[in-house]
């Protein structure tokens, strides 16, 4: 059962993390080119990030379950817990920042209501997303690839 759980978790993690990476590196630049503007692509991204954040929350809950399942050897999972705690906080920040950013958009008209405030908030959202990405790499390295001291189950 544990192997099935771990395989499912790794697959969901791959969709979430890989999706973010592919979206940032390929979809956003392509969308900007095809749609003709950052603004048009931004309104697509606005909807996509809601789904991505929800998937991230599910993955993080499952990652916590995975780390906590090693509680008998808690001294061996401290690094994973610290990384996962930071990842959780960053993901929560994205949930808080998204509606704060949305408040400056008129989605029906495709307009930014206050460009200066929007871009300041958007920059914070992008840095937080980058933190999620980096912490995901750290967590992947520390636990899922078995390079930490987390005890692997047979």
Main-sheet strand order equals: 1-2
- Residue runs with pLDDT of under 50 for 5 or more positions: 147-151
E-strand count: 2
Described by strand count, sense and barrel closure, the largest sheet is:
2 strands, antiparallel
In one word, what is the shape?
elongated
Helix-strand category: mainly alpha
Query: What kind of assembly state do the chains in view correspond to?
Result: single chain
What is the CA-CA span between the terminal residues?
A: 11 Å
Share of helical residues: over 70%
What Rg is obtained from the alpha carbons, in whole angstroms?
Answer: 18 Å
Give, in order, the helices and strands: HHHEEH
Structure notes:
With 154 residues, the chain is an all-alpha fold. It has one domain. The chain is 78% helix and 3% strand. Strands 1-2 form a two-stranded antiparallel ribbon. α1 packs antiparallel against α2 and α2 packs antiparallel against α3. About 3% of the residues have low confidence.
